[in-house]
Each structure stands twice: as C-alpha cells, then as structure tokens.
Amino acid sequence: MRPVYKYLLTKILFLVATYFISLLIVFILPRAVPGNPVQNLVVSLTTGATSPELLSEYQRRLVQAFDLDKPLHAQFLNWIVRSFRGDLGVSTQAYGESVVSLIAKHLPWTLLLLVPANIVAWFIGNYVGAYVAYKRGSVLEKTNVVIGMIISQIPYYWLAMTLIYVFAVNLQVLPSGSAYDPTLEPSLTPEFITSYLQHYVLPFLSIVLPSLGGWIIGMRVIATMELGSPYIQYSNSVGVKDSIIFRYMLRNSMLPQVTGLGIQMGFVLAGQIITEQLFNYQGMGILLARALGARDYPVVQGVFMILIATVLLANFIVDLVYVLIDPRIRLGYKSE
Amino acid sequence: MKVVELLYVLFNNARFMVGFGILLFELMLAFLGPVLYPVDPFNTNNPAWVPPNDVYPLGTDRSGRDMLAMIFYGIRNSLYVGVLTGVFTVVIGLVIGLLSGMKGGIPDEVLMSFTNIVMIIPGVLLAILIITYIGYENARLELVAAVLAITAWPGFARAVRAQVLSLKEREFVYLSRLAGYGRLRIAFQDIMPHLATYILIMFVNYMNVGINGEVGLSILGLTPMNIMTLGKILYFAAITQSFILGKWWTFIPAGLLQVLLSISLLLIATGIDEVFNPRLRGM
C-alpha cells in the first residue's frame, strides 16, 4: 500500500472511532446521570401541564424519542441507524417540527458567519504577527505585542455586549441583533442582502477581533524563529530584497498556523452559541441555547451529532491540507 | 535554589511584577471588598436600574441588585472556580502524562489514544452537555470546575508525557535506576522537580481557562443560580438585555475586571516562563 493511503486510512479510522466515542458520550450522559433527566422532564411537565391529553402526548414523544421501553444497546443502535437515515427525531418544543428541518434552517446562517470570520482573522492576525516579528526591536513591535496580548484576553461575549452598546445603542449606526430585518423574507434581492450585511458587521467583529490577538502572538514567535534560519540569513547576506525575504518568511511561518486554524474552527463553532444568543442571530447556537433552556433533548442530541461531526471534519480536512501544502511532511512519509 | 532567591529573581521580572500587582488588586477586591462594603449581592430590595451614584457606587441592575457587591463576590467565586479548575486539570494531566511516559508500551498507547480522542472532542460542547443533564440546579462551583477540567487536560497530559520521555534518558535517572529505585520514586524525586515550573505555569494558564470557562457556561445559564460569579453578572446583564437598554454599568465594570484578571494571569505565566527558561529572554 502506498504510504499516502496508509496515512489516510489511519486518519479515517481514528476519525470514525472518535466520532463513535463522542456519540456514545452524547448517548450515555442523559441515561447515566443520577435521577434520569428524561423521567424528570416528564415529571416537571406534569406539574405544569393543563390537559391530560397534552401530557400523555409529551410523554409518548419522549419515550419514543429515547426508545425508553427498549434495552440500552437497542436504544443506541436504533438511534445511530435512524440518525444516519436522516431521522434525528422530533422536537418536543417546536410544535413537533423534525430536528433535521430545524437544523437545516439554522446551519447556513452559522456557516455564513463563522467561516469568513475565522479565515479573515487568521489572515490578518498572521500577517500582522509576521510583520511585527520582521520589525523586531522597534517600538511598533513592542506596542503590538502589548495590544495583541490585551485583545487576546478580551472575552468575545463581553466584546459583543460592548459593541452592541456602543454601535447599536449609543451611536445607532448598526442594528443590535437578528441576522436580518425580520420583516424581510430571506432571498437574493439587493434589499435583503444589504439588510443582512448590516446585521452581519457586529457579530463578525465580535468574533474576528478577539481571535486576532492569539494569531498575532503565535505568529510572532514562529516568525522570529524562522528569521533565524539559515536560508533567511543566506538571502540576507547575498542582498535579496527585504520584501522578498518577508514573503519567504511569511509563507514558511504560516504552515504551522494551518493546524491552529482547524482547532480554532472547532472552538469557535462551539463558542458561537453565546455570540449568536447575544445578537439573537438565528444560527445553530440559538437553536441549541433554546433547546437547552427548554430541555428539548431530541434537538440537543441532534445538534450535538452535527456539531461534533463538523468539528471532527474540520480537523481532518486541516490535517490533509497540511500534508498537501507542506512538502517536508510529504517527503517524510515517502522516505519511511 | 532557595525560595528567597527564587522570589528575588521573579520580582525582578517586569511582566511578572505587573501581573502580580494586578492580581493583588483583584484579590483585595475579592477579600477586602465584602468586609468594607457588607452588602448582600442578592438583595433585590433596592430601586432598579440606578446609575452609579453615592448610595450605589456602581449602580443596580433590573432586579435592584447592588452591582458593586455583585462584583466583590463575583471575583471571589470566579477565582475559586479558577483555582479549582487549575488544580483538577493539572492533577489529571500529571497522572495521565506521568503514567504514560513512565510505563511506555501498551499502557502508553492506550492512554495516548484516549488523550487524543478527548482532545478533539469539542470541550465546550462536552461541558455544556454534562451540566445540562446533571441539572444546573444541582450544579455547584466544584462541579463546574471539574467539568471544565475534564475537557481541558489532554494538552497538558501530552506535554508532560513528552517531557518525561526526554527526562527519562538523562544520566541522573540512569543512576537512580542503577541504585535500584522504583518507578514511583524516580517519577516523584527525579522527574517531578524538573517539571515544577512548567506545572506552575500551566496551573496559572488553566486558572485562566477556568475563569473564562465559568463565564461561558454562566452566560448560557448553566451554573448555579444562588452563587455570584463574574459569569453570573454577565448572565444577568445578558438576560435583562441591559446592553441594548444602554445600562453600561451592569456589564462594563465586571467585564473590565475579568479582562484585567486574565491579563494578570497571562503576565504571571509568561513572567515565570521567562525567568526559568532563559532562551525566551528578549524574545
């Protein structure tokens, strides 16, 4: 077998195993926790329920959603098999809407916000970090290091609140929440797109700004080491132009940061929940937050299945891309 | 090195000193504040939405809670969560890392596969899931810290293992082995001292992780309702929409203090690193 396939195969096996274990955790938790939260939910609904029909309907749905009448291993297998057929169950709160259609409604908005924000932060942060390292010893470097360190410690949720307070409430230049004007229907008309972009600015900034700091700090360290390497010193000594040296250095230093991007994607995907909640931005985060509040377990499980899969895939893709763009790793595999 | 010498070196490091100064300030707020300003942070018998004035130095929120009192107790409890998270994470990471590094072979393979798997399971999601099902009514700060630690340890465990593997090949460890000392004694007497500063640095970093993680879980409403933390303050600000209503005093001071606390911990960690890792000096 060619080494590339061997590499791919181990990676995929590991990915599948990890996903399986994650799903097992998602599955076991509600059942293993003392007091059985699902039963508790039925009890707490009993106390608030007005009509017995409504109550028995809830109970039926919960028992069905969790297969509570079957043995554990059957419940797990059933859940997995049904999920892979695209049936994640029915929400106990959203008037019996299926979990899949709820997720389909919310996921695009999250991706639209998340992917560009992460990539923009990554590019700007790395560029600034490399530039700062290149100008080492200058006042610019020192101020930038301090600023980078401070903004890396600003929590994004607090920044989100402050941004809303400053730009939406005090200056009144941007809307305070929602993904688009609620009076408009999502479509590709110029009117809707302008409205969407206006609503986009603040959540976008609240994700980009705090992650800039981390990239700047990380990149500065990597680039400083790169600047000490022989090929840079050689280029310097034969009089290669500064701008070209900077470009060499930037490219080589960016490589390790690709892995960081993948990890960041995973983290932000999860952290998104709070940002979306604060901006009332109707993505996966809002869906999950509402489901958590209402103890809508089928939705919680469904969202987790999708989110964990996305995070794992992001990691996997980044690993592959890393092999593709860094010739040193590829060569390492060939010589084995 | 003697403890006095050690402290002398540390106190000469600018970053460490700035960080330490800020931390002292926050500690004063947390421990002297409630003594000098004995107000119940959960008392709702005050007028609502009062801006900062003579009676309420930092104003009140929608339910009439005194913001200054909330901040004093908030910092205290947030620090508690931070310290606990730091301790839990470091202990789990050390046990797994040392075991893996010292034993080698199959135990090492098993432990490291497990670590790698936990590492890519998104921690925030896992924490949310655990607390949701346990029920946040029953959740205590200790549980919050434990949950945060459960999701944070893999990176540390891997780093400990890597260090143990390299330390294991050093002469003094060979000498201990020749002398017939057991693995346990070698781990604690020969290897641990070399990891001490690294453990300290990571403890400070994970304290930061704990403080920030608690705030994240709190904003989602997943922490106990009857304990004031920095996260709880921001949670109340978020559910009462105070930032949209323009009540800046309900979230700006608390957030600034949290940012300051995080920066101080970061400065302390980098300061210690600079002092004990001479290669980093001037970088």
Description of the structure:
- The complex is a heterodimer of chains A (336) and B (283).
- Chain A is built from 13 helices and no strands.
- Chain A is an all-alpha fold.
- The mean pLDDT of chain A is 80.
- In chain B, helix 7 runs antiparallel to helix 9.
- Chain B has 283 residues and is an all-alpha fold.
- Chain B has one domain: MetI-like fold, CATH 1.10.3720.10.
- Chain B starts with a helix and ends in a 7-residue tail after the last helix.
- At the A-B interface, helix 1, helix 6, helix 7, helix 10 and helix 11 of A face helix 5, helix 6, helix 9, helix 10 and helix 11 of B.
The N- and C-terminal alpha carbons of chain A lie at a distance of: 13 Å
Low-confidence stretches of chain A: none
CATH architecture level-2 label of chain B: Orthogonal Bundle
Give helix and strand order of chain B, one letter per element, not per position: HHHHHHHHHHH
Largest interface comes to: A-B, 53 and 40 residues
Question: Helix share of residues of chain A?
Answer: over 70%
C-alpha Rg of chain B, in Å?
22 Å
Largest sheet of chain B: none
Q: Describe the biggest sheet of chain A?
A: none
Summarize model confidence as the mean pLDDT of chain A.
80
**Total domain modules of chain B:** 1
- Strand content bin of chain B: under 5%
The CATH class of chain B: Mainly Alpha
Number of helices, counting only DSSP H or I runs of 4 residues or more of chain A:
13
Nearest-integer average pLDDT of chain B: 87
Structural class of chain B: mainly alpha
